[in-house]
């Protein structure tokens, strides 16, 4: 059926060309967007004529004898067109009805008037094809019946929408609004940090040594340099080098890449915000975090309360603050501080009737308890703080407990949205941590941190005490647009091939 429809549209394309009309002209003379045209009409004096040239995608056609009502859509909205045979002539009206389809981009010129129903409309004096659509848009699924195109159905298959995001955007206004909101979120994050005196910077995407997170990298090879390079998994180690250089407050918004699984909150390519503040610790960063998210919500949504998947979320400070050890004990009955080895903790987990990974370090077992038994309960904004040292190799140790570090994660709606430390700035201890991670984890272990000699060299020049922060921009966008999957807020998400 699609082939028949395509052939019908190709015949219309051929007709336009035979009549000497270019179906893909190089330029348009649009003078007004749809909303600007309406505003101009509303602002005009009572008897003043407002003439406009408008352009957009043809969305509806309604024939009524010798007149036609149609709607075009542009970035601002929709505008009605009114085509009359006695003004255009029978040949032009026939051309419109016989060669123009839903989905075509067209231009129309004429004076504005208000119909009896009150709709501001263009009385079309001339029209022009700007781009002939060969395929019908998915939301305007068409069927050829007795040489007439009948429109029905909607484009609502998620996988098809993700694979053809261009069509998804074209037919679903709410999807376009998600990405407009995403842009406003990023803009608000920049405004907030800039107002605090942060400097936005750019660090390498291709790195000789990856680091700053526990993740498996993507690997490529540089021919001329004859060495492997890695797509970054984090900005952290480069941003902290800048603190050494005297840039006291820095941030970056950009892409990270992790060769990991794909699910509703994970993509191999995602957008991250990281910032680093000299002379701040994780308590200061907590304050900044909740204040920043509040600012973004107010700028984007107009307030600090919003609906997410049927629940009302309130990001108004102060957020809840719970020590990780206490949160896990409350939900599982297990105090991991009382079980200092992997075997001891695994035994306690087994006695509690909780399943655990067969192969996992003590730190990974703690993360398992956190992810499966604590995080789902954290609906309102909450900080969990003071994490085990062995899963936080870049964080400064808690002065009261050397087995714990000054680290927190922020959770909203049962989802982690940020991770932050009081950053380790002792080069001797940092080197020991890197070596320890190398001994503890094998070559193929994603938790293994490579020893970055240049980063250590930078630290040896002196790094000020500082607090660091990382947040997934995609997950924040999920929250503020009420989307349950990260694929809904990434324009072109990565998907499995159709064969798989």
Provide a quick synopsis of the model.
This protein is of the alpha+beta class and 500 residues long. It has 15 helices and 21 strands.
Describe the structure.
The chain is of the alpha+beta class. It has two domains: 2-154, OB fold (Dihydrolipoamide Acetyltransferase, E2P), CATH 2.40.50; 173-319 and 380-488, Bira Bifunctional Protein, Domain 2 (BirA Bifunctional Protein, domain 2). Helix content is 34%, strand content 28%. The protein is built from 15 helices and 21 strands. It has helices spanning 2-18, 34-43, 85-88, 90-99, 158-163, 165-171, 173-195, 236-244, 282-301, 324-332, 342-351, 362-374, 427-440, 453-460, 473-481, and strands at residues 51-64, 67-74, 77-84, 105-114, 120-131, 141-145, 148-152, 199-200, 206-207, 219-222, 227-231, 249-257, 269-278, 305-308, 311-314, 320-323, 382-388, 397-398, 401-412, 415-422, 466-472. The strands form five sheets. Strands 8, 12, 13, 16, 17, 18, 19, 20 and 21 form a nine-stranded mixed β-sheet that branches. A five-stranded mixed beta barrel has the order 1-2-3-5-4. β1 and β2 form a beta hairpin. α6 (165-171) crosses α7 (173-195) and α13 runs antiparallel to α14. The model has no long low-confidence stretch (mean pLDDT 93).
